[in-house]
Amino acid sequence: MISNACAYALQAMIYLAAQVPNAFVAVDTVAREVHLPPAFLRKVMQKLVQAGLVVAMRGAGGGVCLAIDSKRVSVYDIILAIDGNKRFVQCMLHLKGCSVEKPCPFHAEWTVQRTAIQQQLQALSLHDITQTATIFYLDI
User: Fold this and answer.
1) Of 79, 102, 118, 130, which sits with the fewest C-beta atoms within 10 Å of its C-beta?
2) Is the pTM of this model over 0.90?
3) Mind listing the pLDDT tens digit for each residue in 61-84?
4) What residues contact residue 96 under an 8 Å CB cut-off, 6+ apart?
5) Looking at domain 4-134, which of 2.30.30.30, 1.10.10.10, 3.40.190.10, 2.40.50.840 is its CATH number?
6) Could you tell me the CA-to-CA distances from 41 to 27, 59, 137 in Å, in that order?
7) CA end-to-end distance (rounded Å), the chain
């Protein structure tokens, strides 16, 4: 349902949310701790910075940290920052002509399901998932 980039963003954001607030962590440290490719994570972090979810600081003692309290960042916000809203508006079959006027066979049901998923992701905060997350980045 989400891209690899989005999955990496979620993993990195969970890691950052578990750190001391306003403490910068080097992107390479995040990548190492969460077992992600550093070069790709840097690109993901750029999108999170552009979205205003992460602050980046260059130089000694620099790195990245959350820009917003984890209680105010929804999982939906992170998905939008990386993947955009295409998952919540496009046809399940990727048919360009699918619309209310010309629905595909899945149109009505998918509209209901994707709306429910969107609402659940909007209600789920980064703080919520950080509280229930185990130390997942130590497994592989």
Assistant:
1) 102
2) no
3) 889 999 999 999 999 999 999 999
4) none
5) 1.10.10.10
6) 7, 18, 15
7) 22
22/49 Cα distance (integer angstroms): 14
For residue range 73-122, what is the model confidence (pLDDT) as tens digits? 999 999 999 999 888 888 888 898 898 899 999 999 999 999 999 999 99
Dist. CA 63–CA 74, nearest whole Å: 22
How far apart CA 140 and CA 89 sit, in angstroms, is 34
- Quote the DSSP letter at residue 75: H
3-state secondary structure of 49: helix
Pairing of strands 63-66, 54-57: antiparallel
- Token pair, residue 51, equals 């979205």
